[in-house]
Design goal:
Elements lengths: L2 E5 L5 H11 L5 H10 L4 E11 L2 E14 L4 E12 L2
Helix pairs in contact: 1-2
């Protein structure tokens, strides 16, 4: 069993959506979050990574830009959310 790790492609979006639904208790909240992050200004397409085994998406991790803002400062950060796998 060999797992290939690669950058997500547009053709993977439905499989990633389905994986996130299954990984998070058959609810769509996290899958919809991934879609919102993909279309946001914070999206970094090169940091949306899938794990593929036997031509099937079995894992996904998404990193994106965000800001932490307090009363005096603003900090650019990279966030991880959500990540999922099919065991």
């Amino acid at each position: 069993m060999q797992i290939q790790i690669r950058t997500e492609e547009k053709k993977d979006h439905q499989a990633v959506y389905d994986l996130n639904v299954a990984a998070f208790g058959n609810r769509e909240d996290e899958a919809q979050l991934v879609e919102r992050v993909r279309s946001s200004q914070g999206s970094i397409p090169e940091l949306s990574i899938v794990a593929e085994m036997n031509d099937q998406i079995v894992g996904h991790v998404l990193l994106s830009k965000a800001k932490i803002i307090d009363s005096k400062e603003e900090h650019d950060v990279i966030v991880l959310a959500p990540n999922s796998c099919n065991s």
